[in-house]
Amino acid sequence: MRAIGVILAGGNNEGRMGVLTDFRASAALPVGSCYRAIDFAMSSMSSSGIQKVAVLTQYNSRSLHDHLGSAKWWDLGRKQGGLFVLSPYISRMDNNWFRGTADSMYQNMSFLRRSNTPYVVIASGDAVYKMDFKKVLEYHEEKNADITVVYKDMSGKDLSKYGIMQMDSDKRLQEFEEKPLQANSNMASLGIYVIGRELLIDLLEKVIAKGKYDFVKDIIIEFRKELKIYGYEFNGYWNSVGSSVVDYFNTNMDFLNKDIRDAFVHQYPYIETKPKDEPPAKYNSNAEVKNSIIGSGSIINSKVENSVVFRKVYVGDHATVENSIIMEGSRIGNGCVVKYAILDKDVVLTDGKQVIGKPDNPQILRKGTVL
Amino acid sequence: MRKKEMIAMLLAGGQGSRLGVLTRNVAKPAVTFGGKYRIIDFPLSNCINSGVDTVGVLTQYQPLRLNQHIGIGIPWDLDRKSGGVTILAPHVKGGGDSGEWFMGTANAIYQNLEYIESNNPEYVLILSGDHIYKMDYSAMLDFHKEKKAAATIAVLEVPFEEASRFGIMNTEGDDKIYEFEEKPENPKSNLASMGIYIFTWSRLREALIEDSKVHPDSDFGNHIIPRMLEEGQTMYAYRFKGYWKDVGTIESYWQANMELIRTLPDFNLYEDFWKIYTNTDHQPPQYTGPEANIKTSIVSDGCEVYGQVYNSILGPNVIVKKGAVIRDSIIMGDTVIGENSQLDRCIIDEDSHVGDNVKIGVGDNIENEMKPKIYNTGITVVGHMTTIPNNVVIGKNCVLLGNTTEKDFADGILQSGKSVIVEEVNL
Question: What is the pTM of this model?
């Protein structure tokens, strides 16, 4: 593979995720009972044959560092290349936090310089998808592009969350509007780019010198006419878990859909994650589980429906869990009722408690809450 | 030269013939247990949890699956720069001699003296890959050192009436061993050897070399331990109190698995302390469908259950299709159970495919005609990579292996006690 990878995992998404990002970067959000959001970008890069990947972290990176502590689960524990987890640091010349996505790459320029592949694949760390970057790269070369932006037709979706692209018939970018109130196209950038490595270095030096720090605003939009920027259409499943709580909730629930689950879970290449070595899920004599995912190490004693239950969850007797996301290590006491709720990690509901939210506004209990 | 205080030698070459068709393609230590585990995971996890980071695994019988499972030892944190896990297979020795198989448990260790010497250990822990248990070998080592013993043998207190089935240690008041009796008719003690030994290496080394001159099939129980006792070496019994299961027969294997599905099993896999590790190359979510019903069962990662599962164990990535009903059974990894099939008291090995509308475990409990000593408790066993066609009825104590077709089932029925073994032609 003639590219290195850069995963932007620094954000907390400006508070859009409520208490879910109190303790973690959005790239570390738990997804689908055993994954974290960044597993999707990591696994896509690894299975596309990218052998050197930098993850740029900043906001609340402890859980990300824990998760990425060993790169071997993604086959990125290498002597040649492998995984680089890069955080802002203080040096004699510079004590800045990352001031934007472009700045985060600029501050880690040595990673870009010390590589010798012609291309860089840039992706955000908080989306759920599976992509063959080899194909994007082939397209990039075929178009002889300077930058390729991966987009998806988001007809019918709330377009104001995305960067909206207008392209000519050859897919060359004409206009790019970040989070427009009134969108002029349905084509939304997925925040995934292919760019020449040396070109990226040049552009970063140019914009940072002018005190500009954002990759989309100060590179893509600024140079949209000057550079040959092309769109590459992606038709597979893609959802950002970092854009809103409802998106996060729905993306998790999508794993109850057989086709989506098959695509991520049962079809090669698999999404890899850090293993936790929990025993198989245990269904006791009064378990009543329907249309749900149950994580390993969980013990179920009563009713669970239409829910995503992560690892090591305990559901007591005569409890009801419906349409909810229950994260790792939570305990639901006897007789509790949980509907349309997100229980973050290690939440404890003592016997008889009720947590009931709405489909468009799930109730969230912060990590470690004891009710 | 590197120096390890204690290294482990894990004997994993045995066939485990009493497990019948389950060990046809794999050595006993590679047989799955408790859904996602293999038997060897228990001693390997005990090693790393006890701080033993150098383990030689001796293989001989059908080692492929075992080798793939162990790899470089990543799941057990046994991928080490110094030490770690090493597979030790029988090999041709230099100097013009032809190679030879491992002829006995002690002979296997003797043939790997070089490996042990290269680690320069003070003590050597001998383990077998046959048992289900959690044990802190470092506590046993402390005991061994405290007693200044040449050998320490882990023992389990068994009921006196069962003692004649085991190797029994006769001891003095402080558990110093004065005699070893293999399956004694009139046992003097109820301390049964668990096949777990710690030896002071210099003493074991000497005994192995001396014994190899007289016994080409040198065995720990029959030769090394009696020899060392005769020489008057200090040997102690180390009493183990806890869960320990030999899963040597179809029935005991089935029972030990079934114990795990109780609400409070004797052997707890769900505690954070002393985890058991295994190699699951990826650990996808497990899905239970809208019409599924699962009760009193354990279900591993990656399963997709649309049917009913009661009192059973599902290994990783098992698919149970709509309308299927599984009771009191063990379904190993990557197996598919077809629509509306009914399975009672059976064991289906890995990578198998049971068709639609199949019934297994029907009829009288007639022991197996070919191997009555192995299959006699009503459990029907389906071997590795077996295919069973749609609409057939299969009795109790049956054995099936290979790509079976309608032709193998007269009138669509396989009576209790019958077997269908379809040999692969030209692999």
Answer: 0.93
A272, A284, A294: residue with CB nearest B282: A272
A332 to each of A293, A320, A335, A336, how far by Cα in Å? 16, 9, 9, 7
Q: What is the mean pLDDT of each run of 10 residues along chain A (371 residues)?
A: 91 77 89 95 96 89 86 86 84 73 90 94 95 97 97 93 94 94 93 96 95 93 95 96 92 96 91 91 97 97 98 97 98 98 97 95 95 93
Query: Sign of dihedral through CA atoms A237, A241, A247, A253?
Result: positive
ipTM confidence score: 0.91
As a whole number of angstroms, the distance between CA B8 and CA B393 comes to 47
Q: Is B300 on the interface with A (CB under 8 A)?
A: yes
Provide the number of CB pairs (under 8 Å) joining chain A to chain B: 110
What stretches of B84-176 adopt beta strand conformation (E)? 84-88, 123-128, 131-133, 151-157, 167-171
Q: Quick one: residue B20, left, alpha or beta (phi over 0 = left, psi -120 to 50 = alpha)?
A: left
| Cβ atoms within 10 Å, residue B275 | 18
Contact call for A299 and B261, based on CB within 8 A: no
Measured CA to CA in angstroms, residue A130 lies from A39, A75, A237 at distances of 10, 16, 8
CA–CA distance, A80 with B280 (Å, rounded to integer): 26
Whether the CA torsion A156, A160, A163, A164 is positive or negative: it is positive
Chain B residues close to A294, C-beta within 8 Å: 285-286, 288, 299
Please answer yes or no on whether B270 and A299 come within 8 Å at the CB atom. yes
The CA distance from A330 to A300, in Å, is 12
